[in-house]
Design goal:
The protein has 134 residues and is mainly alpha-helical. 83% of the residues lie in helices and 0% in strands.
């Protein structure tokens, strides 16, 4: 196992970049500001179900979440010297959030039903036509 001194010396380039790079600091500041705004909007004595429903429907909160995550990702990538994979990472993140919302034990069935109604139309009209065709 590596000694603590070796692990610290491995981190020096990252720490140096984080301290000296103005863009990294700006990304972190922006992410913290967005996270504070989201936190203030979401938590106001609401239940978990109410918070999940608000995140699923409120475009401003979704945009703030995207901004915060993107800013943190940019800062992390810049510190590590990585190239950007923002499209792929954003797609994976959105897919993960969508799956989390759809299969949430508290609100998942309601969310799936709402999406089904929006995409396929009224449940009564679609189920009535399929019964008449048989």
């Amino acid at each position: 196992m590596a000694k603590a001194k070796d692990r610290v010396s491995d981190m020096r380039p990252y720490v140096r970049r984080a301290i000296q790079d103005e863009e990294v600091r700006e990304n972190v500041k922006s992410a913290i500001a967005a996270a504070r705004e989201i936190y203030g909007e979401l938590l106001g004595g609401r239940s978990t179900t109410a918070v999940a429903a608000r995140v699923a429907t409120d475009k401003d909160i979704q945009n703030n979440l995207k901004e915060a995550i993107e800013d943190l990702r940019k800062a992390s990538d810049r510190i590590q010297g990585k190239k950007e994979h923002s499209t792929r990472n954003s797609t994976l993140l959105i897919a993960g959030i969508a799956l989390g919302i759809l299969f949430n034990p508290m609100t998942g069935s309601q969310t799936r039903q709402w999406i089904s109604t929006k995409l396929l139309g009224d449940d009564e009209s679609t189920s009535g036509s399929s019964n008449n065709d048989r």
